Amino acid sequence: MVEPRDPRTQSEGVVAGYPQTARRWPSQPLVVRPHDAGELSGPAKLERRLPPSKADLAGRGAHRALGQLIHLRARVVDEDGVPVSGALVEIWHCNSAGKYLHPNDASDSPPDPNFQGNARLVAGDGGLVELRTIKPAAYAVPDSDGWWRPPHIHFSVWGRVWLSRLVTQMFFPGDPLNDHDAILNAVRDPEARARCIAKFVPTASGPAHLRQGALVYEYQLVVRGRKAAPRMP
Ligand SMILES: [Fe+2]
Prior knowledge:
Structural class: mainly beta
CATH architecture: Sandwich
Distance between the termini: 26 Å
Strand order of the largest sheet: 4-1-10-9
CATH superfamily: Aromatic compound dioxygenase
Helix content: under 10%
Radius of gyration: 18 Å
Low-confidence stretches: none
Mean pLDDT: 91
Bound molecules: fe (ii) ion
Strand content: 15-25%
CATH topology: Protocatechuate 3,4-Dioxygenase, subunit A
Largest sheet: 4 strands, mixed
Order of helices and strands: HHHEEEEEEEEHEHE
Shape: globular
CATH class: Mainly Beta
């Protein structure tokens, strides 16, 4: 039995000043229903339909993306802290100028032809997903009157059951924009907000081929239960 979430640990949903959120969140109160096979089963052999990619968005040599190299160690766990090995984890973020590799990004920030933009990885033993990439930049939210998103990384997780499907965002420690971000601060519980922020690891750790010349960040992503990461589109 999964303990119910405290609503303060989740986003308020519709964020004032960010009109897209009104279209992304339910307008009616959620209905509590018992968990049966519909919820407690999951997508089988998903990695066959959604093939994994390389764990490297930054490239190398003449094809190296602009920006500060980071090595991300994200651990996917369930409500009891048990690793969700085999989870399919999709990760995407903007480049070092704040531009997404997506047609909906109409900003005049320059694209980076060497930046891959997104990855799809399978969590290994220990629920661990490792990615070599560059630190994303902050970017101005269009039509927002001065709201800048802090650097952040989007995660979509397909766990073993449908209930562990989760879309959230990871933030970087110490960024002054974190305190002003409408999406992060739509989570009212400060401890739950803190769980959205990765930990900088000053000592090099992880496989050498991934951490070479990169700053290491660790992030724990809880997919279910009271400490579940907030849903952030
Ligand atoms: Fe974003």
